[in-house]
Design brief:
mainly alpha, Arc Repressor Mutant, subunit A, elongated
Length: 87
């Protein structure tokens, strides 16, 4: 668990143009942690959008039966929509 101070420092460093690798090395955090913090701070940040799109649209996950999160969500809603209209 990281303190709010570390999180704020990482976001500030990134805003000032410090490279991700340097931020992670300096603060001893993982890249995925930094990208998560950046996304939470600004969901429309251009560096987080491609990563989120890749994770949700293109990267299959073992726990999801090697489907992407978006595919699983689409299937869930299509099944529930079918069930709701058949009642």
């Amino acid at each position: 668990m990281y303190s709010n101070e570390i999180r704020k420092q990482a976001i500030d460093l990134h805003a000032r143009g410090t490279p991700v690798t340097e931020i992670c090395s300096r603060l001893q955090i993982g890249r995925s942690t930094l990208y998560l913090w950046l996304q939470q701070a600004d969901p429309n940040h251009p560096k987080t959008i491609p990563r989120v799109e890749f994770y949700n649209d293109y990267r299959p996950h073992q726990r999801l039966g090697y489907l992407t999160p978006n595919k699983v969500e689409d299937e869930y809603y299509s099944q529930n929509k079918t069930m709701a209209t058949s009642e």
